[in-house]
Amino acid sequence: MSTLRLAQNNRPSNQNRPALSIATFRQSRPGVFIGGAVLVGFLTIALLNLLLTILTSNAVYELSAIQKEKKELTTTTQILSEEVDSLSSQQNLANAASKLGMISNANPVFLRLSDQKVFGKPKAALNADGRVGRNLVPNSALVQQSNGAELIAAEDVTLTKSAIPSASVSSGAATQPTAMAAGVAKPVSVTTTLVSTGAAIPASPTH
Amino acid sequence: MAYLTPGDPKSRGKWVMAMVAILCVGFSIRLVDYQVVQAEAINKISYENRAVTRTLPALRGEILDASGAVLARTVYRYDINAAPSKVFAVSRKVNGQSVLIPVDQIANEIATILEMTQVEVLAKITGTGEYSQIKKRVDAESYRKIRSLNIPWLYYDPIPDRLYPNGAVAGNIIGYLNNEGVAVEGIETSFNSCLAGIDGQESFEKGVDGIKIPSSTVTTQAAVNGRAVHLTINADLQYFAQQVLTSEVARLRADWAVATVIEVKTGRILVAAEAPSVDPNEPGKVASDDRGSRIFRFMFEPGSTLKAITGATAIDQGKATPATQTIAPFGWVVPGTSYKVTDSHPHGDDKLTLTGVLRDSSNTGIMKIGQAVDYRTRYTYLKKFGLGQKTNAGYPGEEAGLLNNVDEWDGIKKYVSMFGQGVSVTPIQSAMMYQAIANKGVRLSPILVEGCEDSNGNLLRTEVKPGVRVISEATAKSTMDMLEKVVEQGGIGKTAAVPGYRVGGKTGTAQIASGSSGYSGRYAVSFIGAAPAENPDFVVAVTVYKPRTVSNSIGATPSFKRIMQQLLRTYRVPPSTTLSANIPTEWK
Question: For residue A194, what pLDDT band results from cuts at 50, 70 and 90?
Fold first, then answer.
């Protein structure tokens, strides 16, 4: 475009020598046009290249930042995994159960469903005979341990939250607001249903 | 005041042109020098400054229990290092103002996080060197806290490390790595080819700010992470069994104890518990003998638990039935020798059936009935029951036990082998003998490793050899019936009974050989049994080595009972609804 405009502007000054200028103009016009187009093309490519380089450079910094963030998140994942591993280890669960006052009964009693016969002599779980009272299996990876006080508090909260919607309160729904308003702990009876599967023992509702 | 004379403009132009030309020539020479003559050397120095090659560490695969719980995983630990020559006070923004924190205070902050003393840290960061390691293998949380201090003269090396979240639960089976990260024990060793990954490598060019130059050549060989290994072990049951054994070892003042639980119909090892056990996070805390698995490596004379095999052999060969009668004296001289074998306690001539012989664990009775079968045939049966051969369950360094060639059997061994002397077994072999009886006469290969995952996470199951029929189904049933009487009526056997379930099992009180001088005064006491006897699901084998407070199987039955009870509860096996077979144990 610019090449063409230049040629047009020059035309009046060359009017004194029409024959020569016309002949030259006719011969050089396609060359200038092609040359100009090539130059514009080169400039465009160069500009695009520059633009792409800038964009790529920015992207590289962005990528680097994301990679750093990924590394941080991986570290966070590792820290959390170690905590979860530690909290869910058998040793921590045994210790936590013990802190909550739970005792493993070494004298389980079995019930045969077909004739509802009870096998074994029920004994109080406090009986120390045959019971392993504390954790005996070492675990040096136990970095995080359940806190007894927190467990009891968490259990209280869970019971309060879960008991209300799932329980069938024997005294009836009408009595609930009164009890709650008075801020008195209300007796809750949770209804659970055991479904017999015939030969197999039904799964426990608690896990 | 001086005035510039105009001079000759043409001449001045020439001078300027000449100067420009000289400069151009000078620059050209320098350009050629840099671009051609020294090009290679300069490029090399430049590349060395820019190029970075780093190893991309491959993560070792996890070891999982039967439910997918992680028993071993790889985590990163961090070595905290300093360059003492560059240690200086650090500027920090406090309430918007820049405050210079002295080195002493920084040392104190580092010491608090790393659980060291300030003096220890100062000793590490003082000096003129370029490198000093403050603490090795710090966990990720401490590493992050240290990094948040923003101390420019600290630097960190991430080191892949192995973590065993459940500590000693199945520690003797899992194994561990040494400080160089090389597997040296257990499944870590035998399945190293699956667990180990292949480190990758990355090369690229970086700028002054440490950021990768976009157009630089990057050579990346991606790291190939290791794959997960799935065990058949139930970690919760394993923990329970280890608790029981550890408590029993202390109570009995025994050297050690082991318990193996086999799923009868599959051969899967659900529990391989040992006491003392090793915490693979700190294997150095226990004696080297306690770091491996005795279940696969310890050979001992099984003693009376082998009587069930002798009885089953006689029945399978049609030479006896559970009701076959014999007179079992207290002592009996082995035919053709002057070697007298006695029972464990004095008694008269007891009129016992084969079932009664097993119930009372009579050495004389089992020899009198067992001699009806040719010793070469009995040897064949012992081999079929798996004696003298490794089980190839996947544990490294497994022992094959000792079953001498039958041609080497002398007159005494032909007889004493009937009650478990003169042959040696490993605890896993003992358990698998009873698995064969409980599995209607078919002995399976024990499976410790379910398989290894492929690169897509699919489980490639361990190749399992087909089962071997050892005795007929009818013989297996008869043997289980006899073993039930041991638990129903046996003096010690009764203590292994699980209320509500039919249990069959056999006691074993084996003398411990003491080199060339016969037997020591200590015993390896065992109890191996299966339940529910009418259709066994599990075999539990317990061995207690050298108990000091008891000298018979009463040292093993409490552990057996508690582990079996826990198994039946865990897998919700309903109580038995049938009665045991009516077999006489005595005769008149």
Answer: very low
Nearest CA in chain B to A75: B140
For residue A194, which residues of chain B lie inside 8 Å, CB to CB?
none
The ipTM estimated for the assembled molecules is 0.83
* Lowest-pLDDT range of A21-35, A169-183, B176-190, B273-287: A169-183
**What are the chain B neighbours of A85 within 8 Å (beta carbons)?**
70, 73, 163, 165-166
Amino acid at position B502, single letter: R
CB contact under 8 A, A82 and B143: no
Most confident of B43-52, B435-444, B449-458: B435-444
Q: How far is B10 from chain A (nearest CA, A)?
A: 31
- Helices marked H in B253-299 — which ranges? 294-297
Shortest Cα–Cα distance, B7 to chain A (Å): 36
In the stretch 140-159 of chain A, residues with CB closer than 8 A to chain B read 140-143
Chain centre to alpha carbon of residue B547: 25
Instruction: Give the number of other Cβ atoms within 10 Å of residue B89's Cβ.
Output: 13
**How would DSSP label each residue in A5-60?**
HHHHHHTGGGTTSHHHHHHHHHHHHHHHHHHHHHHHHHHHHHHHHHHHHHHHHHHH
Whether residues B163 and A85 touch (CB distance < 8 A) is answered with: yes
pLDDT band for position A187 (50/70/90)? very low
Among A59, A64, A91, select the one facing B167 at the smallest CB separation: A91
Report the candidate in B526, B515, B531 with the shortest Cα–Cα distance to residue B575: B531
* Partner A, chain B 352-411, Cβ-Cβ below 8 Å: none
Mean per-residue pLDDT for B534-562? Answer: 95
Q: Is the pLDDT of residue A189 over 90?
A: no
pLDDT at A138: 94
**CA B549-B554-B557 angle, 5° bins:** 130
In B, which residues are within 8 Å of A111 by CB distance?
575
At B215 the pLDDT is 64
Question: Is the pLDDT reported for residue A195 higher than 70?
Answer: no
Nearest to B246 among A130, A137, A140 (CB): A137
Alpha-carbon distance of B193 to B502, in angstroms, equals 44
Task: Write the DSSP assignment of B475-539 as a string of letters.
Answer: HHHHHHHHHHHHHHH-TTGGGG--TTS--EEEEEEEEEE-TTS-EEEEEEEEEEEEESTTS--EE
How much is the average pLDDT of B305-310?
A: 97
For domain B235-570, give its CATH number from 3.90.79.10, 3.40.710.10, 3.10.450.50, 3.40.50.720.
3.40.710.10
Write down the CATH superfamily of domain B54-79+132-230. Penicillin-binding protein 2a (Domain 2) (3.90.1310.10)
Contact A82 B139 (CB under 8 A): yes
Q: Which of A82, A119, A132 sits opposite B163 (nearest CB)?
A: A82
Contacts of residue A78, Cβ cutoff 8 Å, sequence gap at least 6: B75, B76, B140
Each domain of chain B, given as residue ranges in start order, spans: 54-79+132-230, 235-570
- Residues 1 to 30 of A: which have CB under 8 A from any B CB? none
Report pLDDT digits (tens) over B370-411: 999 999 999 999 999 999 999 999 999 999 999 999 999 999
Q: Does A90 touch chain B (CB under 8 A)?
A: yes
| Pairing outcome for strands B229-231 and B63-64 | parallel
B141 interface with A at CB cutoff 8 Å: yes
In tens, the pLDDT along B229-254 reads 999 999 999 999 999 999 999 999 99
Whether residue A181 has pLDDT greater than 80? no
Whether residue B145 contacts residue B218, with contact meaning beta carbons closer than 8 Å, is answered with no
Report whether pLDDT(B312) > 90: yes
pLDDT digits (tens, 9 = 90+) for B572-586: 998 998 999 999 999
